[in-house]
Amino acid sequence: MDPTTVELTRQEILRRLDEGAQRRRGLSAEQLIRGYRKGTLEDPCSLVDLLALADLLEDDDPLFAAA
Fold first, then answer.
1. Residue 10 and residue 63: Cα distance in Å, rounded?
2. Has residue 1 got a pLDDT over 80?
3. Rounded CA gap, 51 and 41, in Å?
4. pLDDT tens digits, residue range 15-35?
5. Between the chain's N and C termini, which has fewer beta carbons within 10 Å?
6. Cβ-contact 44, 51 below 8 angstroms
């Protein structure tokens, strides 16, 4: 493995999403993704790191189905 590569499991991604969304917006990961997809998430550019993290999940991940 390349020393600059980070591998995250689905659970680690979800944990980081939940922690970041809760700390920065008081939202769950599901609420964050739902708001982004509906276009109602205020200032999504300030959360680009979390949105990029969510993009690491499979397209058919249950998180997206709930959103």
1. 10
2. no
3. 11
4. 999 999 999 999 999 999 999
5. N
6. yes
CB 57 within 8 A of CB 13: yes
Half-sphere exposure of 67 (CA within 13 A, CB side): 22
Q: How far apart are CA 56 and CA 37, in angstroms?
A: 16
Task: Answer yes or no: are the C-beta atoms of 54 and 34 closer than 8 Å.
Answer: no
Dihedrals φ, ψ of 4, to 5°?
-95, 0
In angstroms, rounded to a whole number, what is the distance separating the alpha carbons of residues 17 and 32?
A: 9
How confident is the prediction for the chain on average, in pLDDT? 93
Element (H, E) at 38: helix 29-38
